[in-house]
TrEMBL record:
CDD domains (UniProt xref): catalase_clade_3 (cd08156)
Reaction(s) the record says it catalyses: 2 H2O2 = O2 + 2 H2O
GO cellular component annotations of the record: cytoplasm
Cofactor(s) for this UniProt protein: heme
Keywords in alphabetical order: Heme, Hydrogen peroxide, Iron, Metal-binding, Oxidoreductase, Peroxidase
Protein name as annotated: Catalase
Length: 484
């Protein structure tokens, strides 16, 4: 392969901007004609077989979601239409960066992927145990994950890769501060909160859309692992969290999470001081308090890990009437990438597998493909429109993807024009007590061991801007002096 000094696509054409996806205006949705974005995400999804490229190590369980409060003013989704109504759910927890055989106790965000088997189809919310993420734009996702994986030459994890990327990507500082705090290593999966992380939407019967953030508060209380204990468990019991979840359910100690939403009107979003679709930032709970929705309980273990957990396929493109997405650039990229990853990893008919199939009646014109497990539509027509009155027809009801007004010239808008990388991690740092701050500094310093000084200087300059005490304490712990 002839190497070019210029970054190019697979076809050799030069790429002018590899930092920003094409959107309709600075806050508008991502455009499908961004061939660089599509090529990066599609290629990234096919880099590894057979395990998931991310979230490879996971555990899951079945359960039920129960409505406790009326939110009909926000959504006409049928799963919310009656207080006390229950909907089957499947929840998969995971670590993000490690392989299938990696330790459950790694310092890593925990995936928190929920599948609701509603009477109108499957609804998936893919989130984490943190309310924010490292990047704002899905065009950077393959780059970021590469830094969390292995060096292509040594096949070893390399802290230089990780900190080099973060030092060039200050929007990651909020998530980094959470990751290296006392909550960076949860004590199993039961003792941590979960979040939808992204901004989603709900639509009511009058067609009014509301932007929402999903929060899941554990009823078991928060428990975290000391880094030394986590390291010990990584060697003695790398399946610690998987074992804990499975055994708790077998003992009928069914874990529960209370479900809440933050809500923001479209008018509030248009005038809000920050981009409400930026997944590197949270919404103020003082301005947008939590509203109770219900709770879910995990009460049944899978009968077969491969059939139910490994083949489970989540995708935020699975929405139902009364729910929707948002212009969040990370979420919009995932709408494509997750479903595409499942088609590659499990197969084009992945949604026919029992763990992924809807529990309500369904019909479409998809035919053939590897591992077609049903009658393949029999002798029914496989096109639309058609003249057969028995053939499935469109409902002509309001679409789950609520229509939006798009404005702005198509282009690649620099997401770093918002340079407020520091105020939210600063607020988080100030909330910590002395012991939490000391642990945070210790954890960060440990992760920086062996990192080149020029990368450290660039990274530490950001931490000083978050809070002088934060940056200087970290520099002292690392053992270098920050250059002026």
């Amino acid at each position: 392969m002839s190497m070019s000094k210029n970054l190019t696509g697979a076809n050799g054409a030069p790429i002018a901007d590899n930092q920003n996806s094409r959107t309709a205006g600075p806050r508008g949705p991502v455009l499908l004609d961004d061939f660089n974005l599509v090529e990066k995400l599609a290629h990234f999804n096919r880099e590894n077989i057979p395990e998931r490229r991310v979230h490879a190590k996971g555990a899951a369980a079945h359960g039920t979601f129960t409505v406790t409060k009326d939110i009909s003013k926000y959504s006409f989704a049928k799963l919310f239409d009656t207080i006390g109504k229950q909907t089957p759910v499947f929840l998969r927890f995971s670590t993000v960066g490690g392989e299938r055989g990696s330790a459950d106790t790694a310092r890593d965000p925990r995936g928190f992927a929920l599948k609701f088997y509603t009477e109108e189809g499957n609804w998936d919310i893919v989130g984490n145990n943190t309310p924010v993420f490292f990047i704002r734009d899905s065009i950077k996702f393959p780059d970021f994950i590469h830094t969390q994986k292995r060096d292509p030459k040594s096949n070893l994890k390399d802290a230089n890769m990780m900190w080099d990327f973060w030092s060039h990507s200050p929007e990651a500082l909020h998530q980094v501060t959470i990751l290296f705090s006392d909550r960076g290593i949860p004590d199993g999966f039961r003792f941590m909160h979960g979040y939808g992380s992204h901004t989603y939407s709900l639509i009511n019967k009058d067609g009014v859309r509301t932007w929402v953030k999903w929060h899941y508060r554990t009823q078991q209380g928060i428990k975290n692992l000391d880094p030394a204990k986590a390291g010990e468990l990584a060697g003695s019991n790398p399946d610690y969290a998987t074992e804990d979840l499975f055994n708790a359910i077998e003992r009928k100690e069914f874990p529960r999470w209370n479900v809440y939403i933050q809500v923001m009107t479209e008018e509030q979003a248009r005038t809000y001081k920050e981009n409400p679709f930026d997944v590197t930032k949270v919404w103020s709970q003082k301005e947008f308090p939590l509203h109770e929705v219900g709770y879910f309980e995990l009460n049944r273990n899978p009968e077969n890990y491969f059939a139910e957990v490994e083949q489970a396929a989540f995708a935020p493109s699975n929405v139902v009437p009364g729910t929707g997405l948002s212009p969040d650039k990370m979420l919009q990229g995932r709408v494509f990438a997750y479903a595409d990853a499942q088609r590659y990893r499990v197969g084009t008919n992945y949604q026919l597998l029992p763990i992924n199939a809807p529990k309500c009646p369904y019909a479409n014109h998809q035919r053939d493909g590897a591992m077609r497990l049903d009658s393949n539509g029999g002798g029914s027509l496989n096109y639309d429109p058609n003249s057969n009155t028995d053939s499935p027809k469109q409902t002509n009801q309001r679409e789950p993807l609520f229509p939006s007004d798009l404005s702005g010239a198509a282009g690649q808008y620099d997401h770093r024009t918002d340079e407020d990388y520091y105020s939210q991690p600063a607020a988080l740092y100030k909330l910590m007590n002395k012991e939490q701050k000391e642990l945070l500094i210790s954890n960060l310093a440990a992760s920086m061991q062996g990192v080149k000084e020029d990368i450290l200087q660039r990274a530490l300059a950001h931490f000083v801007k978050i809070d002088p005490e934060y940056g200087q304490s970290l520099a002292a712990k690392v053992g270098i002096k920050i250059k002026a």
